[in-house]
Amino acid sequence: MKNNELKPFGSGSLYWDKTNGRWVWEGGLLIDGAIKHKKIYGKTSAFVIKKLKDIVDDINRDIELSKDITIGKWINIWLNEFKKNEIKASTRRIYEGHLNKIVKIFGNKKLKELTAIELQRYFNDLKINGHFKGGGLSAASINHMRKYFGMVYDDAIKNKLIDYNPVRATKPVRGRQVREPISLTDEEAIRFLNIVKNGDYIYETLDNPHFRKNGLPTQYIIQQNYILILLAFSTGMRISEITGLTWDCINLQEGYIAVNKQLAGKKGEATFGEIFCEPKSSNSRRNIAVSTVLLNKLLEFFNYQREFALAMGDYYQNKYNLVFTNSNGTPFNYHNFIRRYFARMVKAAGISENFTFHCIRHTHCSLLLEHNADVKAASIRLGHSDPSFTRKVYQEVLPSMERSLATMWDEVILDKLDKTEANNDE
Q1: Strand boundaries in 223-292, DSSP class E
Q2: What 8-state DSSP symbol labels residue 371?
Q3: Rounded distance, CA 278 to CA 270, Å?
């Protein structure tokens, strides 16, 4: 039997098991849409190979039968088998949100029968009539759907269910460009931080008659929000990383913050503990060096939080040792923070309403690069997968870095050269 006949089903090896006195084939076989580890035993190598061939032939017959599989059924297999251990629960929700729209229209259609032209018509129509509230979907949303559906068909081809991917024959939907993140200058960032520290923004458009301006919970939220925003500007951490930060992650002796988890988006998505999950990627696990000034601010807030807990008694229960909590000690809710506080901070600072929390991360890196930070070091600090990604996203900052490097070269060499030449002339 030729080795390449088994390539679609994963690799394997045939060997003699001295301990048990038998031949063994061990490897991966594609069974029910997933690669599964199998072992086949026999007294002779010929018997093992024949048994393996019979299994492969059975699998091939199953695949032939499955070529009539519907789009809806294959998407379900793709999500539950192929992507099960590959993506986080939050990413799966995104995939499902986009692909469910596909299933609603094409779910009962056979995988092999979908054509590029009917799919292109569908994408084009979504731009006009795709939103459930009326009107169309954004080009970005449609193109994300197209991307994920293309991945579904790519894996169908790899599994020999079809020979052609109609999604790849369609064109992306054109629309307005994705909005570029806003980056603040040094002065704008300082002004923003001062407004957050002052805390008056919290009383803007106040419609709760029971909200006490000088109450302890209110003052706690003001103090906490300032430290949270200061930390974001100082480290470039993602909001999910900040809300998942626990006090044991802050190393006062060695001067760093360990990013090793984040707050799970929904119940049931926690992968360890009761409320935490893995960071966004393996590169997101990192230690971020922080200044003595910031460490002292965090230590002050730690003591303030302890005093607040004592003053509030049983009302405040920080069960998970979180750095940032609600006023009763429960885990911080990002969406509530944006709606209740961050939007008011932005308005009070007179900044564009398009300034999102992620723009703070963008500001952090932009200011680092403008002050000649190494791109690779900045990439590691932000937890990017590759320095090339950092360079691509922040390419508008790099020309000014090039100019400053030219000035630096003058200071290092050319100015000294001019002085040397002047002395020689004398």
Answers
A1: 250-251, 256-259, 262-263, 276-277, 286-289
A2: T
A3: 8
CA angle 370, 373, 378 (to 5 degrees): 110
> Over its length of 426 residues, how does the chain's per-residue pLDDT go in tens digits?
333 344 433 457 888 998 899 999 888 776 655 667 888 999 998 898 888 888 877 776 665 556 688 999 899 889 988 887 788 777 888 999 999 999 999 999 999 999 999 999 999 999 888 776 677 888 889 999 999 999 999 999 988 888 999 999 999 988 765 567 788 988 999 999 999 999 999 887 555 545 556 688 989 999 999 999 999 999 999 998 999 999 999 999 999 999 999 888 766 666 767 788 888 777 788 999 989 999 999 999 999 999 999 999 999 999 999 999 999 999 988 888 998 899 999 999 999 988 999 999 988 888 888 877 777 887 888 887 776 666 666 555 555 544 454 454 555 554 555 555 556 555
Structure tokens at 391: 């360079």
Token pair 């099960």 in the structure block, residue: 84
* pTM of the predicted model over 0.70: no
Q: What residue has token string 């954004």?
A: 138
Residue corresponding to tokens 């929700």: 93
SS3 content of the chain, % helix, strand, coil (to 5): 55, 10, 30
Q: What angle do CA 118, 121, 122 make, to 5 degrees?
A: 90
Q: Where are the alpha helices (DSSP H) in 159-269?
A: 186-198, 216-235, 239-243
Tokens of 243: 């809300």
Tokens 């009761």: give the residue.
Answer: 274
Q: Residue 178: beta bridge partners?
A: none
**Would you tell me how many other CB atoms lie within 10 Å of the CB of residue 141?**
19
Q: Give the angle subtended at the CA of 225 by the CAs of 221 and 230, to the nearest 5°.
A: 155
